[in-house]
Amino acid sequence: MKLILILLSTIYLCLAEEVYQNSSHICNTCNCRDEDEFVLECANKGFQHILAEWPAHNKTLVAVLSHNNISTLGRLPFSNYTVKVMLDHCNIKNLDPGILANIAKVELMDLSYNLLTTEAIDGIEFKGPYDHDKYFPTALKYLNLAYNMIHSLPTRFFESMTDLEDLNLEGNGFSVLDINTQTALSSLSKLKRLNLANNGLTELVGDAVLNLKHLEELDLSSNELDFVPNTLDYLKSSLKILNLSNNFIYKLNDKSFLGLNLRYLYLNNLPRVKSVGPNTFATLPLLKKLEMCNNTHLRDIDREAFSPKQELVELYLNNNSLIEISYKLLQWKTLKIFEINENPLSCSCDLYNISKDLSIDITRNLDGPSCIDSSGHSQMIYHLKSSGLCKNEKHEFDIDYAEDHFEMLRVTIVGLSTILVVMMLILSAVAFLRYRRGVAVRNYPFTAQVSYNPLQNRQF
Ligand SMILES: *[C@@H]1O[C@H](CO)[C@@H](O)[C@H](O)[C@H]1NC(C)=O
Ligand SMILES: *[C@@H]1O[C@H](CO)[C@@H](O)[C@H](O)[C@H]1NC(C)=O
Ligand SMILES: *[C@@H]1O[C@H](CO)[C@@H](O)[C@H](O)[C@H]1NC(C)=O
Ligand SMILES: *[C@@H]1O[C@H](CO)[C@@H](O)[C@H](O)[C@H]1NC(C)=O
Ligand SMILES: *[C@@H]1O[C@H](CO)[C@@H](O)[C@H](O)[C@H]1NC(C)=O
Ligand SMILES: *[C@@H]1O[C@H](CO)[C@@H](O)[C@H](O)[C@H]1NC(C)=O
Ligand SMILES: *[C@@H]1O[C@H](CO)[C@@H](O)[C@H](O)[C@H]1NC(C)=O
Ligand SMILES: *[C@@H]1O[C@H](CO)[C@@H](O)[C@H](O)[C@H]1NC(C)=O
Question: Which of 71, 114, 115 to mutate to test the pocket of ligand 3 (most atoms within 8 A of CB)?
């Protein structure tokens, strides 16, 4: 009896595998757009199965089947053209063997936000077309398995995906990259982008990335890393973009990125980082963009954290606990974007000097960052005046300081000269009057007697 039941359910399952969504006149049910690519838009249609056929197309087909309810994904319909298919948010639990066997040129497959488990993907599902007793590799370049429930990949999982360039495994259960996963990953010699974010990883096992000779971008954000993994060293010749945000990393020093050649580095939301040591970024001569925001305990960036030769283009330091920034830290002139909002900075000559070096495109921002002056008031950094901040620099010439003093001197001189002129006028007037009187006395000898003053006379 049990056997019959099992047999029946097996038959049912086999039959179920053959069930497809009726797709005649599919462009009436869905939205079809014949543009640069042929776009079939079937999101949110309540489909329980994959379509039986694609609509007629003679160019690249983009099939958007997101947000349907396809618990078992059957074999995708035949196409001679390049196909990109979105099957995210579809409640997919199982994959039929050979889902890609009908499409030689499927290039992109988005299976994110489904219910796939390690058990449901034993590797045969992604096999390419079968012909003359052998499987051909698929043309898959982009595979998105983010936000499923996978914790390990079968050793030969990528065997028929030899061209894979972009793999997204974010938000699964890879808290350790086990031996099988390591072996699987190490076959991806063309991989350029790998996303392992949000998996609870505590380390990056070297053997998992050892063979990724072309990996340019690695996302390790939102994991449980305590250190910048030293196994990144295996990727030193190719890695350009590294995201380590949202981790428990607490040390950033000259060893952290030694030997790497990063262009873009993301270090946001590292709650345990308190300081950045000397030469931390000096070892990254090609670094263009650095984000270090929301590191609520970051108080100090060593003035020698960068090298003097570095030409950073974008620097984000918002929402840290920075109190001071050394003017010597960077070549400020090369920056095109600089953000340092939400920090308890105290106004200093360093900040004044920095704002003088920054490009006008940055400092014209009226919503710019602020600092706290010696009397506890908030000041806009880009409007700081040097006097009062830089005046202790006795031996160095400071134009603004001299200008301020020259102004005072000018006022004093003008004032003094005015007083002088007025006094001279009065004096000469007095002298002239006296002279006139003298002349008059001499010319009219009797005037003195006429102007007889009894009071004066009494004195003698
Ligand atoms: C598919 O749907 C069309 C109408 O859209 C109908 O005429 C046809 O019979 C259906 N085919 C199957 C196999 O159900
Ligand atoms: C592609 O198909 C469209 C109609 O579906 C047609 O107008 C066009 O000529 C075809 N192009 C080629 C190159 O066959
Ligand atoms: C999805 O399909 C399953 C059966 O495959 C069904 O039990 C479930 O109710 C469906 N969910 C929605 C939201 O339609
Ligand atoms: C697919 O392409 C092959 C060769 O490129 C051709 O022989 C075949 O007829 C095409 N099939 C369809 C359905 O267009
Ligand atoms: C880096 O990771 C964070 C957290 O996961 C994410 O929000 C951000 O978009 C990522 N940045 C880049 C450039 O990938
Ligand atoms: C600053 O960062 C903390 C920690 O990530 C966050 O909770 C807070 O909302 C952020 N504040 C601002 C203004 O962004
Ligand atoms: C910092 O935190 C705020 C608030 O949580 C968030 O809006 C912002 O995106 C975060 N910035 C970065 C660069 O992670
Ligand atoms: C500020 O800049 C002036 C002129 O370039 C320099 O002499 C002085 O040392 C700088 N002060 C600080 C604190 O960097």
Answer: 71
